[in-house]
Amino acid sequence: MTVTLDQLDDRQLAKQISAFGAEMPYRKAPYNSRAWGNSLHSLCSYQGKLKPSIAYWLVSTFTQPGDLIMDPLAGVGTIPFEAALLGRRSIANDLSPLAATVSKAKVAPPTLSEALAAVDGLADAMSEVRLSKSDQDAADFGLNATVRDYYHPDTLDEVLKARRVFLEGKLTAVGADFVWASLLHVLHGNRPYALSRTSHPITPFSPKGPFEYRGVIDRTRTRIERALATPLPAEFVPGRGIHGDFRQLPSAVDDLAQVDAIITSPPFLGMRFDRPNWLRLWFCGWTAEDFHVRSLGFLERQQTKSFDYYKDFYDVSAKLLRPDGLLVIHVGSGTKDRLVDGLRDLGTSQFRLVGETVEDVAALERHGLTDKGSRTTSHHLLFFRRD
What whole-number distance in Å separates Cα of residue 340 and Cα of residue 277? Predict the structure, then answer.
């Protein structure tokens, strides 16, 4: 008789967690390669995302095909997308309009024909836009350079028209999110695929080089064709992406007390998602006020002052998880960063702490893990079960 994961008692699950921590399979070849994973993990460049191999091993080891997996702090959807690839049902949620757009595109990708029809729809919608003074004024915003500095004037007009279509929600075709995620990817970069002058694909450093016209529709279409060139596996199960505050999830989903596992990686202390992604967030409608005011309400800023957000996180998780459902939290720590201690202590008020793994990443940090916030020396996996 085969014993399924949900039939394991806490002692048996703890043994499995201990074995996982001792082996750390995601650190072995081929999973330790930065290039490992489905190409859609890189649909849109994004700073600070979880390595797909960690998501793969957590989902494949601690859940089963058909399980409902949720990430309330999904970022660009690495964990839910990996769950979908492995035949699990998935829900991704994030408060950032940029991250939510990308995660929605990844967990429920369209067919190539659907995506190309949607990009044709974008071209039609853009042709009807008449740019206003406020549209042009929006291009004067910037952090290390203005938006206007990044583009040839004709390209800028197209970017502004596409932005208006995005903000007014005029593209409703199947595949719209995939079109937007693809456009967001090509918004800036250091190669000819990008719409911008020479910058950087992840962080929009101040641009340099000549102003060359690059068409929004052509570059977006090329990105879509490349992204969808590799078929998804037969076991892929389309998921659901949500843009919103995780505290609203109990009223946004019909799966109360039915989620089998919540697997998530909250922002590491010191990590900022707004400024490294400022140009893409601008396209999604953010203004100077959003960067100065709205960003203060995001978890990565709140957790530097208080753990109150995490009290809410555990409350929401308890409502969503089924009895004995699994909650896995991936979090970093350092000599001056003990977020993990607060998460461990808060979690035990509503959950049973079944196990914990600790990975020494000090050597990795010295070799370029600069996008994970302040100095991180260890990665922790906290495994809880709902009471």
Answer: 26
Whether 145 is in a domain gets the answer yes
pTM: 0.94
- CA distances to 148, 236, 327, 373 from 113, rounded to whole Å, are 33, 19, 38, 40
Residues 6 or more apart whose Cβ sits within 8 Å of residue 92: 70, 71, 74, 77, 79, 80, 81, 100, 103, 104, 106, 107, 239, 240, 241, 242
The reply to whether 327 and 365 lie within a common domain is: yes
| CATH code assigned at 319 | 3.40.50.150
Q: What is the pLDDT of residues 317-336, one digit of tens each?
A: 999 999 999 999 999 887 76
Q: Give tens-digit pLDDT for 25-50.
A: 999 999 999 999 999 999 999 988 89
Distance (Å, whole) CA 174 – CA 172: 7
* Residue span of the structural domain in which 266 resides: 5-33+52-101+239-271+292-386
Structural domain ending residue among the three candidates 227, 251, 280: 227
How many domains does the chain divide into?
A: 2
CA–CA gap between residue 36 and residue 31 (Å, rounded): 6
Cα–Cα distances in angstroms (integers) from residue 22 to residues 83, 302, 329, 347, in the given order:
23, 33, 18, 24
User: What is the C-alpha separation between 94 and 46, in angstroms, rounded?
Assistant: 14
Statement to judge: residues 82 and 191 lie in one domain? no
